[in-house]
Amino acid sequence: MPAAGPVTRHPLDPDPVRSTKSRAVFALGLVALLTGVLVGGIVPATMAMLLARQARREAYASGGYLTGAAWLRRGERMAWAGLVLAATSVVAATIIGVVNLANGSVGQDFAPGVD
User: Transmembrane ranges (predicted)?
Assistant: First the structure.
């Protein structure tokens, strides 16, 4: 049985190129991670997830000529982390608000003897 040699490319095959969408997903994921605590990370995280879906489809359809899967994975992870930080901030703010509402006086406090 002959040994498998290196795979030769056809001269008309395109050169592999890095996907620009994978870089955009990475950048949006980074912004989402940095602004997630301020709840502003929801928008870039959502955009990163939608763009990652498109980039993954294009990479699959290109047959291996679009690279950048590592950047895509990192960007998606950071986008998810940004969403988790935003959700944690909302839950923490809700709990703090409920506790402050429970500790505060309810209604108007009148002086004694005033009807």
Answer: 24-52, 80-102
Rounded Cα distance between 95 and 115, Å, is 36
Gap between the Cα atoms of 46 and 25, Å rounded: 10
Asked if residues 52 and 75 have their Cβ atoms less than 8 Å apart, the reply is yes
CA 24 from centre of chain: 11
**How far is the C-alpha of 77 from the C-alpha of 105, rounded, in Å?**
44
How do residues 41-58 score in pLDDT, each as one tens digit?
899 999 999 999 999 999
Domain residues of the chain, as ranges? 17-103
Strand partners, 67: 18
pLDDT tens digits, one per residue of 82-111: 999 999 999 999 999 999 888 876 666 667
